[in-house]
Amino acid sequence: MAGKRSGYISWDEYFMAVAQLAGMRSKDPSTQVGSCIVSDEHKILSMGYNGLPTGCSDDDFPWERDGKPLMTKYPYVTHSELNAILNFRGGSLEGATIYVTLFPCNECAKAIIQSGIRNVVYDSDKYAEADSTIASKRMFDAAGVTYRQYERSGRKIEISL
After folding, report:
1. Is 158 a catalytic residue?
2. Of 90, 110, 89, 87, nearest to 35 (Cα)?
3. Residue 84: enclosing H or E segment and its boundaries?
4. Series of mean pLDDT values for 10-residue runs along the chain (161 residues)
5. Which of 13, 64, 81, 151 is flagged as catalytic?
6. Torsion of CA 132, 76, 57, 123, to 10 degrees
7. d(CA 121, CA 102)
8. What angle do CA 72, 74, 77 make, to 5 degrees?
9. Taking a C-beta distance cutoff of 8 angstroms, is the pair 106, 135 a contact?
10. Which residues, at least 6 apart from 4, have a Cβ–Cβ distance to it below 8 Å?
């Protein structure tokens, strides 16, 4: 009797790859972030990426990082975590895990906590010293939301379309 195949990807690799793939949908020229929300049973519940709200054309709003506030992307773009939460169409996210390619900002942390998500697995923490990230970690700690950095395996996963 033959055994199962070896070399298959782990759950963490799978869900972080889905989050990375979702981030590739972002039109943001400087930062592409993706999220994947998963149940305790390893089922994908929702996905999201950073972009404009539905009905707002990507061509009609600014993508600049600097300048007068209304001429930058910041007042208009919805972050991937909030998009994934808002894209969820059924039941509860209570106890779920969110895989996200960039550590959540304080506004997304609030939405994560309020939605009932209990675990955050993030890839990059490049803004670890930013006030918004420090606030996120304080709120996660206070609310009992666990967070851990994704441990890269170094495996290359390639998809040809």
Report:
1. no
2. 87
3. helix 80-87
4. 87 97 96 97 98 96 96 97 96 97 98 98 97 98 98 88 86
5. 81
6. 0
7. 9
8. 115
9. yes
10. none
